[in-house]
Automatic annotation (TrEMBL):
It comes from the Bacteria. Pfam families: VitK2_biosynth. Its EC number is 4.2.1.151. This is Chorismate dehydratase. Catalyzes the dehydration of chorismate into 3-[(1-carboxyvinyl)oxy]benzoate, a step in the biosynthesis of menaquinone (MK, vitamin K2). SUPFAM superfamilies: Periplasmic binding protein-like II. It catalyses: chorismate = 3-[(1-carboxyvinyl)-oxy]benzoate + H2O. Pathway: Quinol/quinone metabolism; menaquinone biosynthesis. PANTHER family: CHORISMATE DEHYDRATASE. It comes from Paenibacillus spongiae. Belongs to the MqnA/MqnD family. MqnA subfamily.
Amino acid sequence: MGLSRPITIGRIDYANVWPIFHYAEDKLPQERFVVVKRVPSELNKAFREGKLDITSMSSFAYAQNADDYLLLPDLSVSAKGRVNSILLFTREPLERVLQGRIALTATSATSVNLLKIIMSLYYKANPSYITMEPTLDKMLEQADAALLIGDTAIKESWRSEGMTVIDLGELWKTWTGFGMTFALVAVRKETAAADPEAVAQVLRALTGSKRRSLSDLAPLMSKACEQLGGSLSYWNRYFHELHYDFGPSEQNGLALYFDYAKQLGLLDTTVRMQVVEDQTAMQVNE
């Protein structure tokens, strides 16, 4: 039994998912598994279109088609407060931003809608939005503020002198008291039904990578310095302030985000999160 073709796996091409994937690919034979690296928006689209079997993906994009997917248990990219890579940059006073225009990165789903929720429900503001490629200087030529995510946001935060930089994870925590889950790992239901053994193998590889990475962050910190720049102390703090579980606390914070998104019409339906467990679906947060 099982699929006769390779299983395709989507990997978000940002440092924030490194702990989940860093050691996993060595455990997934290339003749059986193909790993594709893309920005979140591209993975979200490919997964929706059935071009991926399993993927790390934006939490919001998961919610849009949750009935088609199952979550791999206890895997996420979350923050209990400051996230350091979901950042709103501005040279203008906040009062102008709230009444002005904000440039949104074209690479995101969760963060874009988190910003819209914060603007509407926290600030009681209704700015206009424009979606652009993630180049800060060009974005700020067209708008009063710019939302960047991932490695681009990190690099821009290092040269942000003279700007106000708002960390959306930190602001969400201050407002709601909850942490925020920005990405999840999901499998298409038909893949889980057709090849549960392959799904279990992927889950073991990702869970093992998470455990090994978090037990010794030094290799990831060195890799980040080499590939992205920055200091070991920065990356030590960065990886320690992210969380990779998806327990009750993370689920409750994400459920609130989904509720706010539905309240604002960003989501059409109530989200019922389902996870893979023992090759069956178990519903959580009913």
